[in-house]
Amino acid sequence: MRKLTGAILATVLTTTVASADPVDDNLVLNEETQIVTRTAAPAHVSDALDEVMSGWLFRGTETRAMQADDFDNPGMIFVEQAMDAWTVADGSEGKSCASCHNDIESMAGVKPTYPKWDEAAGKVQTLQMQMNECRTERMGAEPWKYDKSDAINMEAALSSVSRGIPVNVAIDGPAQSTWELGKEMYYTRTGQLELSCANCHEDSYGMMIRADHLSQGQINGFPVYRLKNTKLNGAHSRFKGCVRDTRAETYSPGSNEFTALELYVASRGNGLSVEGPSIRN
Amino acid sequence: MKNSIFAVAATMIAATGLHAEEVLPTNVAFNDGAVEQSLSGVAGDAANGRIIVGDKGQGNCVACHQVADLADVPFQGEIGPALDGAGERWSEAELRGIVANAKIMFEDSMMPSFYKTEGFIRPGNAYTGKAADDTFGPLLSAQQIEDVVAYLATLKEE
Predict the structure, then answer these.
(1) ipTM > 0.95?
(2) Dihedral, A12, A13, A17, A18 alpha carbons, nearest 10
(3) Which helix (H) or strand (E) is B96 found in, with range?
(4) What is the pLDDT of residue B158?
(5) What is the dihedral of CA B117, B120, B126, B127, to 10 degrees?
């Protein structure tokens, strides 16, 4: 009886999956920057996935088109605000980001390596934590609140100058134990619905869950401008929403747990281009 | 003689539900994934079950399953198989077991356990993101499960 049902289920599933597959499309930014939106899975996830795919491939035609041109990408308005802030002095030392880092374009290649082990802090830090380290320890300024506008806009600006560069976070050496914690979180079925990230984004990507077309839950596109709330959203805030949707007690943006999860999820997308600020529903 | 008739009548009333005892989520007896005994002791209401299956705030089964009979409910998911014909594929006891705790019939199933209150990791207070408090109960009540089972039993392949 059970075997028979299994066979029936298999048929039903194969017929429905095809209808919601990711699109076959190419993302070229501003008619010049080629974005890698699908590529062979990195070695450490090849047992689970053959190919890794950007969330862009799972969005509708209009949403995809909006992201292809900076003039149509509403996320770029926030990037411009942060580019202005880059040169504004703040804090007791009278310094701006530009005082030490010159043009923001000089930061190309930084975003794809985060989260990253920080020797002085003795832990893996996200890009926002690194920015706050500069603010509190080097500028004498207040830290920016995690995933809130000042921080997320600057993260998007740093991301924008790295677009097209492949995500390449290190998972070995001192970062390894954090990466392993993130991996464990990814596969743990939490909350009253007992769902893991993998249930939705590894086992079911390409399928519809109610009105949503499930992607692989990659974060190469973060920060993302969401049409739903018309602002930039950070990866930790997205994680929080997904964990909440399993009817679980969530973690907070900026917590060690979400930092570990970010490192792990970022590593699943090693090889995909940095895309942020991208556009999602 | 009169006395014994009264005794029989009393037993029948108990069995039909006036004094029916609900089976607690921690006490459900599974047999090969199926549950023979009604969880509420009261017959299921298929019309209400139909509502629960399609309602986002109740079963929300359509998040994962398509049901042709619920064509009026938009955005049906495709994580699980379409439920059309479920009433032919499964007995009532099997349907009750699947809805109460599908992971017993289908190992490691992605389908949530709708009549279970223990064994969760970081259970929350509904969709608030906060920790569960003492209002925590099963996703569906005993009677809601019976209603859903009654509805599923009506789903026959055309």
Answers:
(1) no
(2) -50
(3) helix B92-105
(4) 66
(5) -160
Domain contains B8: no
Active site residue A137: no
| Structural domain contains residue B93 | yes
pLDDT digits (tens, 9 = 90+) for A186-234: 999 999 999 999 999 999 999 999 999 999 999 999 999 999 999 999 9
Q: Do B122 and A248 touch (CB under 8 A)?
A: yes
- Chain B CB contacts of A5 under 8 Å are 89
Mean pLDDT of B11-28: 68
> For chain A, what are the domain ranges?
28-279
Decide if B36 is inside a domain: yes
Domain of residue B36: give its range: 22-154
Of the pLDDT bands very low, low, confident and very high (cuts 50, 70, 90), residue A243 is very high
**Residue B48 belongs to a domain with what CATH number?**
1.10.760.10
Contact call for B123 and A191, based on CB within 8 A: yes
Between B79, B120, B132, which is nearest A204 by CB?
Answer: B79
Instruction: Name the residue among B64, B103, B123 with its Cβ closest to that of A209.
Output: B64
The answer to whether residue B12 is domain-embedded is: no
- Which chain B positions have a beta carbon within 8 Å of A247's beta carbon? 123-124, 126-127
Q: Is pLDDT at B9 greater than 80 in this prediction?
A: no
**Each residue's pLDDT tens digit, A5-32:** 444 444 444 434 434 689 999 999 999 9
The tally of domains found in chain B comes to 1
In 10 A of CB B47, how many CB atoms?
11
- CB spacing of B81 vs A8 below 8 angstroms: yes
Give me the residues paired with residue A195 across strands.
A190
Tell me what percent of the residues of chain B surpass a pLDDT of 90: 85
Side-chain-side CA neighbours of B61 within 13 Å: the count stands at: 29
Terminal Cα-to-Cα distance of chain B (whole angstroms): 52
Nearest C-alpha of chain B: how many angstroms from A197? 11
Q: Name the residue among A55, A71, A67, A80 with its Cα closest to residue A205.
A: A55
Question: What is the model's pTM?
Answer: 0.93
Mean pLDDT of chain A: 93
* CATH fit for domain A28-279, picks 1.10.760.10, 3.40.50.1370, 1.20.1260.10, 3.40.30.10: 1.10.760.10
> Residue A229 corresponds to which tokens in the numbers above?
């709330």
- How does the average pLDDT of chain B come out, rounded? 90
**The predicted structure's pLDDT at residue B157:** 82
